[in-house]
Amino acid sequence: MLRYRTQGLLAVGLGVFAGGCFGDPEIRTDLRTEGPPQILAAMSQSLVTAIELPFFCRYVGGVKDEKAPGFVIDYQLGNQLVCPDDPSEFVATDMDPRGYGLRVMFDELLDGDAVETLICEDNGVCAGSLLDTQPVTVTCGASNTPVAYDGYYTPNGNNTTYPLGPSIVIVPGSVDFATGTDCTVTMGANVRDKSGETVPAAEASLDFRIADLAIEDTDPHDAEEVDDRTVLDPDGAVGFAFNAYIDEATIDAADFEIVNTDTDAVIPSDFAVDGFNVAGDAIFIFGAADLPAGNYTARLKSGAVIGEVNGGTITLTADEDVRFVVE
């Protein structure tokens, strides 16, 4: 049966489908032919942005593995440097707390029947699944709590084009751990090559981290020059976007304020009582409708403690300001 994948991680929800079940791919670009399977790179993909970035690259004695990816042609990012030649320049990407997947890339083809189950329809379309085979274990937290997952095996691919391959793609069924939690993915005995060799035990586990809670963006963007600032509609709002889903119970209206940028005066209004709204991973604050024309700053104040739904928190060490204009 043909195991051939072109989809990214976002296609995993109901299984990733391939257009037919025939045989292993004939083109095995740049693969090793001897020795046990080695992990060349591991990627994290946000299930919100779909961007895929590395959290592991294989370096041996301070030298990048010759088969590990360097510049890769990525459909979203263009030419993406995955594994720099100098290991000191490599920075591991943490997982998106809102949802993430893992791609573990190998230097040779694996035994596909051991890694995944193919479920084929009468029309010849097949879906790969890791539910029955469970080729890896994923654990998180100090107690090494097991994480349920599904995914699929991708035999095609190479080290120069997206998606990287051959690879196993793993997508946790839920995200229940706090931001900043450390996790591990470990290859099991059925992650083996076609000769039956498994990943060496010393190299079979990869550590990764769920990203710390952080502010990702604001809407509108802050601007130094008045002419570059957004004119806020009377019913408009200023949004602070985070990388995790916010727990509204942790929000204190006293952590926000609107300031007249021209006079540095804090604007007294109903905003101080009920002028904010939490929507998923964003906090919106209101108040423009009550403001006369002028320049203003919406501020999430230094010292504010914001929490996300799985228990992680962030304490702001500086004001997060968004300057805007009311006409």
Polypeptide structure, described:
- By secondary structure, the protein is mostly beta strands.
- A five-stranded antiparallel sheet has the order 3-2-8-14-13, with no helix packed on it. Strands 18-27-24-20-21 form a five-stranded mixed sheet, with no helix packed on it. It has a four-stranded antiparallel sheet with strand order 12-11-15-16, with no helix packed on it.
- The chain has helices at 112-115, 271-274; strands at 16-18, 39-46, 52-57, 59-60, 63-64, 71-74, 78-81, 100-106, 117-120, 126-129, 136-140, 145-146, 149-154, 167-172, 182-187, 205-209, 215-219, 230-231, 238-242, 256-260, 265-266, 276-279, 282-285, 294-300, 305-307, 313-315, 320-326.
- It starts with 15 loop residues before the first strand and ends with a strand.
- The chain has two domains: 9-209, Sandwich (Immunoglobulin-like); 215-326, Immunoglobulin-like (Sandwich).
- The chain has two helices and 27 strands.
- The model is unreliable at 10-23 and 270-274 (pLDDT under 50).
- The longest helix has 4 residues, at 112-115.
